[in-house]
Design brief:
The complex is a heterodimer of chains A (about 120) and B (about 110). Chain A contains no helices and 11 strands. By secondary structure, chain A is an all-beta fold. In chain A, the strands form 2 sheets. In chain A, strands 2, 4, 5, 6, 9, 10 and 11 form a 7-stranded mixed β-sheet that branches. In chain A, a hairpin with a 2-residue loop joins strand 5 and strand 6. Chain B is mainly beta and about 110 residues long. In chain B, about 0% of the residues lie in helices and about 60% in strands. Chain B contains no helices and 11 strands. Chains A and B meet through strand 5 and strand 9 of A and strand 4, strand 5, strand 9 and strand 10 of B.
Chain lengths: ~120, ~110
């Protein structure tokens, strides 16, 4: 079974530009979550999508947005990039979005975004 | 609100035991997890524990859960240089909307 894939793996942008990152979850997984990882802030939750609906959202400005397609693939978009947006963006998929069962998140390798 | 905290760094000598600690605030957590992140990679699940358990052992890994104090720990016996990584605890919770919350991560450095 193929793992979670993220494209592109590396990206360099300049301030003010926008960027779209893509995540393909494991086949059959309906939940996709996005995280931002920086050395100073650790792993911070951006948002979670389940069956094309945003279920949870972290404390990020409106410049960060996402969506999920009917095949569960997800994209996240960052508009008007700032230097502080430089980070590793991780996507994780899981079988379902439920609190009652054990639920492993499977992570992709991440997209390293550098904003100059 | 929900919060999961860990100490940032831990350094141990090869062959010693490592203990990584985590505290969480949401008492409605159902499962608690430990993930490992090696350099340049995503996170990988190491082990997990159901919230009504006190302890779980899996080869060199021992997870202890003190639900009263909302404290979770991961003990790695006979720590090896290959264990050097960042370790994240996480909880899944049903308070309100289902959420999956990660800690800040502990960077473990194993000295040869």
């Amino acid at each position: 079974k193929a793992g979670v894939t993220q494209t592109p793996r590396y990206l360099i942008k300049t301030r003010g530009q926008q960027v779209t990152l893509s995540c393909s979850p494991i086949s059959g997984h309906r939940s996709v979550s996005w995280y931002q990882q920086t050395p100073g802030q650790g792993l911070q939750f951006l948002f979670e999508y389940f069956s094309e609906t945003q279920r949870n959202k972290g404390n990020f400005p409106g410049r960060f947005s996402g969506r999920q397609f009917s095949n569960s693939r997800s994209e996240m978009n960052v508009s008007t990039l700032e230097l502080g947006d430089s980070a590793l963006y991780l996507c994780a998929s899981s079988l379902e979005s439920s609190g009652g069962t054990y639920n492993e998140q499977f992570f992709g390798p991440g997209t390293r975004l550098t904003v100059l | 609100g929900e919060d999961v905290e860990q100490s940032l760094f831990l350094s141990v000598r090869e062959g010693d035991s490592s203990v990584i600690n985590c505290t969480y605030t949401d008492s409605s957590s159902t499962y608690l997890y430990w993930y490992k992140q090696e350099p340049g990679a995503g996170l990988q699940l190491l082990t997990y524990i159901f919230s009504n358990m006190d302890m779980k052992q899996d080869q060199r890994l021992t997870v202890l859960l003190n639900k009263k104090d909302k404290h979770l720990s991961l003990r790695i016996a006979d720590t090896q240089t290959g264990d050097s990584a960042i370790y994240f605890c996480a909880e899944s919770t049903t308070s309100g909307t289902y959420k999956y919350i990660f800690g800040t991560g502990t960077r473990l450095k194993v000295l040869a």
